Amino acid sequence: MAAASAAARGQRVLLLEKNKKLGVKILMSGGTRCNITHNCEVKAIVSAFGRQGKFLHSALSALPPKEVIQKIESQGVATKVESTGKIFPVSNKAIDVRDALVNLALTAGVEIKPEQTVLKIQKIGDQFQIETQSGQFECNALIITTGGKSYPGCGTTGDGYQWAQQFGHSIVDTVPALVPILNDCNWANNLKGITIEQTSVDVWQPQQPTSESEELTKSERKSRKSRSLVNRNGSFLFTHWGFSGPAILDVSRAVARHPNRRSLELICDFYPQLSIGQLEDSLWNKKIKNGKQQTGNLLSELFPKRLAESLIQSANIELQSRNAELSKIQFSALINQVKRCQFSINGTLGFEKAEVTAGGVNLKEIDSKTMQSKTTRGLFFAGEVLDLDGPIGGFNFQSAFSTGWLAGLSTEPTIG
Fold it and tell me: The pTM is what?
């Protein structure tokens, strides 16, 4: 996008690509379907990025979501809006999106050189000199769009950070975001592959004792678990090492950022469609009406069989027992497992499996109206290399496309 917008203004543009293939992260994104952007207005994109959102106003004005789609479709790739608001190619093939972006650049006149690992960058006078293993290139304007450190197998190994620091920029500490969370709960890990379409997920920060010598009873510790760091609703996936899915990925940054991740707890409401009171009434009526039925079937209408039985067993209830035999204490424990299921957190899968990097080039040092460095004239940054990370749903691609487009628009005409 950055190369295409600069070339469309008549610039002579060279795109240096580290990999043999172009757009490797695009090819693997969205389960190889590529979630291009989100079906919403600019205001919603800004809001999705929280404290970082204000920085995106000019970029989103230059290239809003609807214009991203127009550019993709102008290259013959039809798109569709799914019920979640996510926008995908109709073909469900990420390669079609990648090819559309490549064609957009080539049509604008961009020269693309793959397999060009940048070894060194320096500025001499008004010129940047870029050295690769195959030669040296000079330019008046340089746009760094190297991404972060997530999925390093794609070539995103944080190269852009050292170049930014070389030109006087500070780097906000980087952590993996949109990344699966680790847990060692045996009954949950045995449910690998099961997905719940709607789950409400909270990351809780247990309050610490006021002094090292203070000892807390179990009930006191429970009462101190009163601060939620983040809450998200969405699809939830059980895995053999923990949890994934949109709801989990969206809370993972809070986990990765925390200095003591293992002190955190995950509180899951596996049936947010009903309040606790409503669920209690519904299941109690079912218990009374079907007193002779085995308790193992009590949650059968709410969840897949394996999950329903696991929740019942985790509440210390025998599957073969009868509903009529279920005590109020057992019933309360079951409700608690469904609505407030608690898991310890053992960390995340790290950058290797993170979709996005949180942190990066400090936004205070970038002119949001142009994407140009405030320390070095002619130097621009765009995309994930910046301290920009949003939720799952196409928001991060939109941020990358828009900041890239604005950076390309902001480069000055080539001299000579």
Answer: 0.91
